[in-house]
Write a structure and sequence with these properties.
Layout (H helix, E strand, L loop, with lengths): L1 H5 L6 H17 L7 H15 L5 H12 L2 H22 L2 H11 L6 H16 L2 H18 L4 H18 L4 H10 L3 H27 L14 H16 L3 H18 L8 H7 L11 H20 L1 H12 L3 H19 L2 H18 L4 H16 L6 H10 L3 H4 L4 H16 L6
């Protein structure tokens, strides 16, 4: 009985194999995205199948099918696809461009870099993608840098900070969806809890950027046309989710509204409405852009099911329980787990999907509310993603501006302050159980 309670360390071998393969290929090639994550996870699943000698093949299939068939996994996968459809439709309708231009049109010239951060926050929370936010604002950051006396590093740093704000909070962000569904809480509850925790970090980030750039100003010479109707679908989704409407209903409403706006403004013909939902404006967005993370979520659910069956999850929980005695320690355990897994995978969504089941078990053991555990899980994977030099966000920002990630990291104030704010809340501010 004692052995069953302690679990088995060797049961974690599949996860260790994935990390060795993924990190090894990254160090060898210098590119942590050279090997698709799905390949590494499939190899890890194969290792789990070979390692488990207690069950025959059909029994193993039944075990992983039970894991994949859980309500949260199915719901999460469907939300990924619906969110992808909304993103494809609203981008094709010109919503992203109009949102950027609207923000820049009302940007006071004496707080240019602060404005970049605030616009990045709004765009990322509306679009649900940090990568899309960086791609949209990086050229603007370069332009502002050229017109002021401040280095491009601090300008693009403001963009990255804003991108990570929405990546952690947006209702249609894949990280938020994964955190909510793995922990079993409502989207609106997680947003409110999470927003309260990161608000001090956002305010301090604004103060930091204002202090460093308070003597600068700039003037945009190019035209910045925008259409408020194209911004409307983002606002509908954001407000609807905050009010508490069903996430599927909100996203479907936003998608339909985006299609109406897109056709009415001649952004695409009526005959292309299904195409933009599936592929977006350029053929690489929409539902298709969510295929990878959906399949990865399913494969990871299979691996977690096999690992749990062999005692790996029990082993991790036993190790945590021997070092943690209370709710505060449980929350710290979730934070550390989230950060470490993200540093290993360089993908905060994958990290949440991997660490989510363990975090849920920890939260249940120490009576941590689901919204609190979802917030901590999402926050600390975002902390890692916003600071690791081999993460997609910093690599993209560096590539678009001709810098290196190490040039940008000193100005990534928000991820650093988010970690500090999260720790303060864990250590000093209690949460309710419900």
């Amino acid at each position: 009985m004692e052995k069953e309670t302690k679990g088995s360390a060797i049961a974690l071998l599949p996860i260790a194999v994935f990390l060795v393969i993924f990190l090894g290929s990254g160090f060898i090639t210098g590119d942590f995205y050279s090997m698709p994550a799905i390949v590494g996870f499939l190899i890890a699943l194969l290792v789990a199948f070979v390692q488990d000698r207690k069950h025959n093949f059909n029994e193993k299939i039944h075990i992983i099918a039970q894991g994949v068939g859980e309500d949260n996994i199915i719901t999460m996968s469907l939300i990924f696809l619906v969110a992808g459809g909304f993103s494809g439709a609203v981008t094709a309708a010109g919503g992203a461009e109009s949102t950027v231009n609207l923000g820049l049109s009302v940007l006071p010239s004496n707080i240019a870099v602060v404005g970049l951060f605030l616009i990045g926050c709004f765009i990322s929370i509306s679009m649900g993608t940090s990568m899309g936010t960086i791609a949209a604002l990086a050229p603007i950051a370069v332009n502002i840098s050229e017109k002021t006396s401040f280095p491009i590093a601090i300008c693009i740093g403001a963009v990255v900070c804003g991108a990570m704000f929405g990546d952690n909070l947006s209702m249609i962000s894949d990280t938020t969806i994964a955190a909510v569904k793995t922990q079993g809480c409502e989207m609106k509850d997680k947003f409110r809890e999470n927003f309260l925790i990161v608000l001090p970090a956002a305010i301090l980030t604004i103060i930091a950027f204002f202090f460093f750039t308070r003597n600068s100003s700039f003037t945009l010479t190019e035209s910045l046309p925008y259409n408020i109707w194209k911004v409307l679908p983002y606002l509908v989704v954001l407000v609807g989710a905050l009010i508490g409407f069903n996430v599927f209903a909100v996203l479907i409403t936003g998608t339909v509204l985006s299609l109406i706006v897109g056709v009415a403004t001649d952004m695409f013909p009526l005959s292309d409405i299904f195409k933009v939902i599936a592929q977006g404006a350029d053929g690489s967005g929409g539902i298709m852009s969510m295929y990878d993370i959906t399949v990865i979520s399913i494969i990871v659910a299979c691996i977690v099911s096999m690992t749990r069956e062999m005692g790996g999850i029990h082993f991790i929980l036993h190790c945590i329980k021997t070092r943690i005695r209370n709710k505060r320690g449980g929350e710290l355990g979730i934070a550390i787990l989230a950060l470490l897994v993200d540093m290993c995978t360089a993908n905060n969504t994958v990290a949440i999907v991997m660490a989510g089941p363990i975090a849920k078990d920890i939260s249940q053991e120490f009576e941590i509310s689901p919204r609190r555990s979802a917030s901590i899980l999402d926050m600390f994977t975002s902390v890692g993603q916003g600071l690791i030099p081999y993460g997609a966000q910093l690599l993209s920002a560096a590539t678009l501006t001709g810098l290196t990630p190490f040039d940008i990291i000193p100005y990534c104030f928000y991820p650093i302050l988010m970690a500090i704010s999260g720790l303060v809340f864990i250590l000093f501010i209690r949460n309710r159980k419900a």
